[in-house]
Amino acid sequence: MVTLAEEAVDEAQFLDEEESRRLFDEIAQRYLGISGQEFVRRWERGDYNDDYERPEVIRVAMLRALAT
Amino acid sequence: MPHSSREAAIRAFTGGLQTAFTCLAHGKVEVSRRTFGGEVRCYGIFNRERPTRLSRDLPVWFLATHAFRPVQAGAPGAWTVVTAAYNYAFTLSEEGKHELLAFHWHSEDVGAFTAPHLHIGEGGLGADAVFSPRWHVPTARVGVDDVVRFAITQLGARPLRSDWGSVLARFRSEFGE
Predict the structure, then answer these.
(1) How far is CA A41 from CA A63, B56, B109, B143, in A?
(2) Is the minimum CB–CB distance between A33 and chain B shorter than 8 Å?
(3) Residues of B whose CB is below 8 A from A28
(4) pTM, whole model, 2 decimals?
């Protein structure tokens, strides 16, 4: 029997570090209008401490590891 | 289902995510792999986290991120993956505004509420609602298959595959935690 992985893994894509950073930047721009690096700066400064449940913020925050 | 290497476990789960999501919407899963203190964490992101319309006749959009970690599965040399975090959201606009609801599970580095939960978004609340989109409604941990099934059976999304039920059952069987 063909597993789900064998059926579809070739349709997915594995990103390298630079592609990951570009994707994070794209997501931060789309939802918050700022670069990925700027989001990380603001996050670490605590600018979103009272705002992290905002849908646009959490979508970016959960992916900030892609910026590193 | 254990795999013979860490890489095989990551690839298997990625393929499973791709298949499960595409029961619901056209698109591609991209996986970014990061390492923190020797621990590998993978972020599976559907359609670059762009909201993707569910069906032509249903004005609801879907976006999804699923983070997972490869772990040893007990027997020497056997690997599987476990869920590390997720965000599955349904919105009423293609810009991602007017969130209808969102299933979240994230660690304490994102917010103080670290148990799996649901947000009822402003798109799901009337102007005079007393419920707040900021409230965290506790849930059990929700699987990819649960969310896809919810969209099809409850929201009325038209599945893209006629065998979606068996695909989701296989997902649960191969990757259920």
Answers:
(1) 14, 39, 15, 32
(2) no
(3) none
(4) 0.94
